[in-house]
Fold these 4 entries.
Entry 1:
Amino acid sequence: MASKNRKLMRVFDAFLRALALVLVVLSIIFMVEGQSQTGWLLLLLSILLFITTVPRPPPPIEPVFSVSTEVICEGCGHKYVRPFKKGDYVFKEVEECPRCKKPMIITAIFRKPTKEELS
Ligand SMILES: [Zn+2]
């Protein structure tokens, strides 16, 4: 839907630029025929049209990553992976192990590869 809109905008921009070119030609004709005020006005209008239709680069697509945190117990090696929480860092002590009650530490923070990266 968004790409269709962008395509439509490009066609519209091309039309406006063509219109600006026509206005430049018209302004020259008006100036040659002595109606310089109308000529300058049309020239100004065509410049404005050119400026507003300068091709803009498309906005960058921001990939959405799911970041995970790996937590391991130092005592028994119990390990689990949970979604990343703000404030997580490697070697941070997070909670006590549900098995042996020793402190668990974060050993890795990683993002899962996207579908494109896997294929
Ligand atoms: Zn443990």
Note: The chain is about 45% helix and 20% strand.
Entry 2:
Amino acid sequence: MTQKAWSIIAYTYDADYHCIHCTIKQFRQNAEWSIDVDEHGIRQEIEDSEGNYVTPLFASDEWINFEMLIEEYCSDYLKENPIQILACGTCHDEIDRWKEGE
Ligand SMILES: [Zn+2]
């Protein structure tokens, strides 16, 4: 995928990943009266149903933790699952995918 490392590709809230479209549907405010909104009109420090912040996921963040965990605990896992798909917890659309060595 051709994305800039700092572009937002998804959000985390309600203990799952959600695509930008679903996040906008649920959380977008009237951007004109709010100064602290991001590029998708999502206000910083807005809370989900569990009282946690809705957190943007940047293209550069996405698989870093995953790769570290895999290396440390389960390198065999990748032989069986060489492609990992990040999907939206609301609409189940694919947000991004990871392939070993890419
Ligand atoms: Zn979605």
Note: The pocket of zinc ion is lined by residues 18-19, 21-22, 88, 90-91, 93 (CB under 6 Å).
Entry 3:
Amino acid sequence: MTAVDDVRSIEAGSAPTRFARGWHCVGLSSAYRDGMPHGVQAFGEKIVIWAGGDGALRALDGYCRHMGGDLGNGQVVGDDLACPFHSWRWGGDGRCQEIPYARRVPPRARTRSWPILERNGHVFVWNDPEGKPPADDVTIPVFDGYGTDEWTDWTWDELLVKNSHSREIVDNMVDMAHFFYIHKGLPTYFKNVFEGHTCTQYYAGTSHEAAATGAPIDIGRFDGQSTTSTATYFGPSYLVDWLENSYGEMTISSILITTHYPVTATSFRLQYGMIVKRIPGLDDDTMKTVAQKMTALIGEGFLADVEIWKHKSRIDNPLLCEEDGPVYQLRRWYEQFYVDVADITPEMTQRFEFEIDTTRAVESWQSQLVAAAQTGATASDEPSAVGGV
Ligand code: FES
Ligand SMILES: [Fe+2]
């Protein structure tokens, strides 16, 4: 019998009860521009978002401070939001602008407004448990050429993940091996860089199908591979993946977004979508089909991840081998969003780089695929996910 001292135990810990500080994407801006208020369940609360008559988006706490009416069922009047219960009119700054039946508005008629940002066709809400506005350098990048003919429109899908925490998604940023076992990918280059509020994964690889032919695989090079992906988290939840997929002579460039916001401390809404760079000579419908197909494939990949998250244990002390990525350093980076700004330590934000030597993994995976092909087992087709998750 193995002595108890020799056995590794799982330290499961517990999920944080506070929610990450940062910009959280809550969907496409077009979805909020239908003249209606939208209730969003996020950060353990309810938020209401609407576009005023001037077109600007606004976000407030979802329940009216008068008698608790659900503002998500209200009406947009001019730039303000009228509560469905007694029609108090709330402005985007959180102040009650008017009470149609009253002589005057009580001076304390003020509710909480949430900082809101619109960028690249997405809407972001700023969450900060300390109640401070975002620092200027903590923002979301503008995508070159977005909104022009250069790119297709966003595809967009979402799913609610229950009984889990977003740390599981973020962990995948450094998890090279799961791309082989869960997503039918074969990573040949894998590197992470953490710095400030960003965390990047450089991934290059090939497919099971290509590897199964036994053709030599170019290991350790980022450029020139059939799939290359540079995926960066800007803050705790918005992952931008600049993706290049080559099919023979043709290369498809796309931007894949994977983003989540917490609904409660133990559930989150995962959203994903992409824009594809138009290829000269291909018409709009074809481009749209390409984007939809790729998004569907990515969706399959997420379901495979979710299946793992649904059944796995939370683990604060993962047991790692050399070919695993820097899970502990990644979690230290992620921790910065869960502590007060004054408690952020240099270890959480200083630049950190780590490249995995993929030589042994690729050799082993390729021989496994070649052997399977020889026994008649067909290798699966395209990878179902790259870009961090
Ligand atoms: S509860 Fe909103 S106006 Fe009365
Ligand atoms: Fe994954």
Note: Residues 154 and 296 are 13 Å apart (CA to CA).
Entry 4:
Amino acid sequence: MTVKIFDTPDVQAFVKTVAGFDKTGGNDRAKQIVHRLVGDLFKLIDDFDVTEEEYWAGVNLLNALGSQTQFGLLSPGLGFDHFLDMRQDAIDAEAKRTGGTPRTIEGPLYVAGAPEAEGFARLDDEATEGETMWLTGQVRDVNGTPIAGAKVEIWHANSQGGYSFFDPSQSEYNLRRTIYADSDGRYTARSIIPSGYGVPEGAPTDVVLKSLGRHGERPAHIHYFVSAPGHQHLTTQINLAGDPYTYDDFAFATREELVVPAERIDDPAEIAKRDLDGPFSHVVFDVELAQTDAAELQVRHARPRAKEDDQDLASQLAGTAKV
Ligand SMILES: [Fe+2]
């Protein structure tokens, strides 16, 4: 037997009551959104004949996600982070702010306050094991003019997929640096090739993804913020080509323009030129920043994030996604 009650006057009135429409206090936008959200879920329960067992299993799953601070992991997994990027792309297109390197999701593991350098920085502490990476690029505007002094913030995982600050085995700010581009807009970083990683087996996010027949793996990637006065702040990542998950990222961060090869170099002259000990992988990522006159678009940091003085948030984030 299928029962449908959503469209009855009683239920329609009830959703309005739930959303506080008959109360003068509160926040009008919250009321509108909760009215829509609860109404849509009521209708879903009706349409799919959701059983009480299914409903309470869902509540338990939400509790598990919350208690393990995994909504920040489920969010990219269910495409919300990418959807927000798609919306921002459309907003930019509408405002004729076209061109520039594509944005993609930030993930939850940026940490402010990384050491700063001019032109060149070594990202790894010398104790970090991994294949040497030489990461270079030039920051330009959409006309191809180099942007001297552009701020390039880079962070990535180690070869086990862990991030400093969240992985207590790593030194402070390991694999995190801010490099100001030189007079020709160029930046250079010495580091190690990061590893991809996955959602922890059995974690609530893993349960959700498995129920969809999906995996929770990410390819090896490197996060960037790039900014300069008069230009749009860019949040992006590069995915290393050749990873099994380069085009199958559970977080939907891959964009064709952001897939870059890591070229193995074993020419002794090239090794000597960089004062390295042996063969290395060369990764090149040039960045184009779109221009803007709007100051508020130069820095867009909506996501709460860990800072060196924000241990509570850091401990909440620790143990969650390495996105
Ligand atoms: Fe990441």
Note: The chain is about 30% helix and 20% strand.
